[in-house]
Amino acid sequence: MLQIQENVSLKNFNTFGIDANARYFAEISHADELTELFADPIWLSMPRLILGGGSNMLMVADFNGLVIRLNIRGIEHRISHNDVFVEAGAGEVWNDLVNYCVDHGYAGMENLSLIPGSVGASPIQNIGAYGVELKDVFESCQAFEIASGSLKTFTKEDCRFGYRESVFKGELAGQYIIVSVKFHLSLVPNFNLKYGAIEQELAARGISEPTLKDVSQVVSHIRVSKLPDPSTIGNAGSFFKNPVITAEEFGPIQQNHPDVVHYPAGDGLVKLAAGWLIEQCGWKGKTVGNTGTWKNQALVLVNHGGATGEEVYGLSSQIIDSVYTKFGVTLHREVNIVK
């Protein structure tokens, strides 16, 4: 029987560790429970927040509505020749799914190791790391349409993936709840080792012909060396998107800062490393009140203990202003701001 709780603290449900309350709270373990929930019209008209791992959000105030925590589990797979199709419930922990695929020899997800969060959130954000994005391994997803109470399948084309964007963050925001995601992987690895320090770390380990597990372990090692563990210090991983600018805009920046970290982004565009920009403005490892930036990666904002969401948000605004002042580049928050 579906239960609705009242006045629930969300401190343990967001990786920033922000102490904010939900007026109402429901945990969903099966898609049928969504049908049951929204059969009551009171929940259709109320503000709602869909919660997975709580790893890509910042609570800046109590949530005066219904928080729905997805806990739909299960992983299944089907193999056809060298193609592997893996389907996982929205409530599965993302890295558990990556480890499952790596352990079974299903290639494609290894560069996405150790990204925090849940499977259901991965298409919404089009998560990515080390040269691979969710869209590269995405086959389809099933989503519950709140208005009709029916399930709909979304293909890759339907999702309109962009850089940390999808249709679920755009025109369909708030209209669907993802309940499962299907991935298209392969039994034949096609490694992407050029991004970041993957090649260097493999060479340092004396590995010239890596396995899926080698790549996954190296990616995990690199992430751990740069990013803080949310169980140790509150954070939401990368707080800002890497800005993408035109080649014309990039010219003066490179002229004034020859060592600027950048990557080609196609179509005459250049992607800048937000962490580098922030570090050049003197923010790396800086503490401001109860919050600050991580000592090893300026892109990550942290809660040193007792920080409010407003405090973290205020720090992010200061960083955005200083980067714009120094480089003329506007940073955009990757983390979802919940008010």
UniProtKB/TrEMBL annotation:
Q: Which GO terms describe its cellular component?
A: cytosol
Q: What is its EC number?
A: 1.3.1.98
- Names of the cofactor(s): FAD
Annotated GO biological processes are:
cell division; cell wall organization; peptidoglycan biosynthetic process; regulation of cell shape
* MF terms in GO: FAD binding; UDP-N-acetylmuramate dehydrogenase activity
**Which Pfam families does the UniProt record give?**
FAD_binding_4, MurB_C
What SUPFAM superfamilies does its record include?
FAD-binding/transporter-associated domain-like (SSF56176), Uridine diphospho-N-Acetylenolpyruvylglucosamine reductase, MurB, C-terminal domain (SSF56194)
Residues covered by the FAD-binding PCMH-type domain: 17-188
The pathway where this protein functions is: Cell wall biogenesis; peptidoglycan biosynthesis
Look at the named UniProt entry and state the broad enzyme category this protein falls under: oxidoreductase
Catalysis performed (reactions):
UDP-N-acetyl-alpha-D-muramate + NADP(+) = UDP-N-acetyl-3-O-(1-carboxyvinyl)-alpha-D-glucosamine + NADPH + H(+)
Location in the cell: Cytoplasm
- Check the record and name the PROSITE patterns matching this protein: FAD_PCMH
- Answer yes or no on keyword Cell division: yes
Kindly identify the residues recorded as the active site.
164, 238 (proton donor), 334
Which keywords annotate this record? Answer: Cell cycle, Cell division, Cell shape, Cell wall biogenesis/degradation, Cytoplasm, FAD, Flavoprotein, NADP, Oxidoreductase, Peptidoglycan synthesis
Q: Which NCBIfam families match?
A: murB, PRK00046.1, PRK13903.1
Provide the family line: Belongs to the MurB family.
In UniProt terms, what function does this protein have? Cell wall formation.
Q: What is this protein called?
A: UDP-N-acetylenolpyruvoylglucosamine reductase
Instruction: Tell me what organism the protein belongs to.
Output: Mucilaginibacter psychrotolerans
